[in-house]
Amino acid sequence: MEIQQLRMFLKVAEQGSFTRAARDCGVSQPAISQQIGKLEATLGRPLFERQGRQVALTEAGETLRRRAMQIVSLVEDTARLLCDDGETGKVVVSAIPTVAPYLMPGLLETFHDRHPRARVEVNEEVTEAVVRRCGLGEIDVGVLAMPASRGYLKFETLFQEELLLVTAADHPLAGRDRVELDDLRDFPFVLLDEAHCLSDDIRGFCRRRLFQPVTTGRVSQLATVQELVAQGFGISLVPAMAVRPDPSGRLRYRSLDGERPSRTITACWNPDRYQSRLMLSFLETLKRTRIVPSKT
Length: 296
Fold this sequence. Notes:
Layout: H1 3-15, H2 18-25, H3 29-43, E1 48-51, E2 54-57, H4 59-82, E3 89-95, H5 100-114, E4 118-124, H6 127-136, E5 141-145, E6 154-168, E7 189-192, H7 197-208, E8 215-219, H8 222-230, E9 236-239, E10 251-254, E11 262-269, H9 277-288
Parallel strand pairs: 3-4, 3-5, 7-8
Antiparallel strand pairs: 1-2, 5-11, 6-9, 6-10, 6-11
Helix pairs in contact: 1-2, 1-3, 1-4, 2-3
């Protein structure tokens, strides 16, 4: 068995598809199929059951998957340990889409100033993917909003962030002296699609007030949410870090009176993987990073 074969095997097991695994590994599908075939020939056991375009692990495949994760992790951790000078190397980070565009640019600038010879790879992924890839050891640090499935990962709270009401400038709520969560029940919401945990947070806040927000649409980016709000399609709750300058004056942001909705931003990592000095330095930089909302 070769380490590259095991990496390819793990990618096929994760994706459930030779085509998607080949794309992620940067090789052709015949190439990855050939390597899996060699691995099966070496072991004398089939590792996958072919189910049309999908594949599933056999019993032998599931046993190998557990061992292969340990082997690949040990090899990678050993290499990182031997090359760990605290200044060079790479840190792989994944952050959810409602955090990455706002937190990462300033964080990367600060980290680069302190470690100019280091590389940081940033991925933007939904919570489920961040947790899964962190568990597999494909990323060093995840940045997400709670709640998230903890499993065997290590989580550390970074900060609490308020969610602000955003309306069009001419919306009835924009001119009120006080606005509470109950006041939102009669207005349609523009929310992110169901893959984003922020929408679950908003629905949870509303359910505590015994109402389900009526949505006018679900989109995939906070910038689109705010543009639709500006055009009068509804209201929304957005993280304070996502407040954007609005020279046109079409948007109004405000804190709610009474109970103020918020979310908990958290870092996660796999404690069973080797934490390099560079990764720990990045984590410390992350802990010190704060977002100052834009003035509107």
